[in-house]
Amino acid sequence: MLYDLSLHMGYIYDVPASGARHILRVMPLSLPNRQRLIAGSVKITPGPDEQSNFTDFFQHPATSILVRDPHERLDIRMQARVQVESQPVGADFSPLLGKLPEEIDDCWSIDPSSPHHFLGSSPRLPETGEIADYSKQWKATNLTTLQIAHAVCAQIHKDFTYDPKATTVDTTPKEAFRLKRGVCQDFSHVMIITLRSLGIPAGYVSGFLRTIPPPGKERLEGADAMHAWVRVWCGETAGWIELDPTNNIPAGTDHIVVAYGRDYSDVAPVIGVLKSYGNQKAVQAVDVIPLK
Question: Where is the secretion signal located (predicted)?
C-alpha cells in the first residue's frame, strides 16, 4: 500500500511561552521488508532558533528544536509518502511459555531490538500488582508465546472500552486498568505490562492508522490521531510480532510505524520544556490517504 500522510500538532498557550526546547519524533521509519519512507518533510512555526537532528538509542531519527522568543502557539506539520508491504503469515514457531526464558537467556545481544530491554519496568510502566494478577489466567496454560500474545490482545479488547474522554496522556496504566476505559495508549500500556508480568518481552509502537476503511469494512478506532500498538518478542525463530489491542488485529498494511520503544516515554511525538504559566491547549489532526 502507498500512503500520503499529513500530521498537524499544535499547542496554544494562555500566556506566551519562551525558551522552548522540544524533541520531535513524527516521521515514519524506513524498515526492511516492512515499509519505506519515500519522501517527508516537517515544518515548525515559529521557525526554531536552533534545530538539529540525531538518532536515539532505538535508532529512530529525532529532531531537537529551540524557540527562544515568546510565542503564543507552536505548530508542527509533517507530510510524508510511505510504501507499506504486506507481511506473510507463517506457522507458529514460538516456544511454549515455559521454554521462553531459555530463548531469552540464549540471546546475548543488547542492541536496540534485544528482548532484554523489554522485560522489566520502564519509565511509564512500573510493576502493577493488579495487572500482574490479571495476567495469571494465562500462566498455567499450555499455549505458545504467540498464542498467549493473541489471547491477551483479544481479552483486553473485550474487557476495555474505547473512550477518548476517559483518560489523558498522563493517565497511568493502573488508573486505566481500573477504569477499563481509555485510548490506544492505555490499551497498549496495559497489554505490555500483562505480557511482561508473564515474562514475555513487549514494547510500545507509535505510528499512524489508515483512516479510510477498505470497501465493506468499518472504520478503525483511533484513526483521527496518532495510534499505538504493541510489539511482542515470541522467541528466537518467530522474533517480533505486532498486535493492535485497540482493534484486536495484527498490525498490517493499515499500520505505519514511526517509532519503537519500551513505553510512550520513548516514542512521544513531542517532548520538552518551556517557560510559561497558565494552561495550554493541544490540537492534533491526522490524515492517512491510500493512493493504491
Answer: none
Q: Are residues 214 and 286 in the same domain?
A: no
In a domain, 135, yes or no: yes
- Is pTM beyond 0.85? Reply is yes
Q: What is the DSSP track for the chain?
A: -EEEEEEEEEEEEEEEEEEEEEEE--SPPPBTTTEEEEEEEEEEESPPSEEEEEE-TTS-EEEEEEE-S-EEEEEEEEEEEEEE---------PPBGGGHHHHHHT----STT-GGGGSS-BTTB---HHHHHHHGGGTT---BHHHHHHHHHHHHHHH-EE-TTT--TT--HHHHHHHTEE-HHHHHHHHHHHHHHTT--EEEEEEEE-SSPPTTPPPPTTTTS-EEEEEEE--TTT-EEEEETTTTEE--TTEEEEEEESSHHHH-SEEEEEE--S-EEEEEEEEEEE--
9-54 pLDDT, tens digit each: 999 999 999 999 999 999 999 999 999 999 999 999 999 999 999 9
Q: Tell whether 44 is covered by a domain.
A: yes
Asked if the model's pLDDT at residue 161 lies above 80, the reply is yes
Number of structural domains the chain divides into: 2
Domain match, 285 and 183 both? no
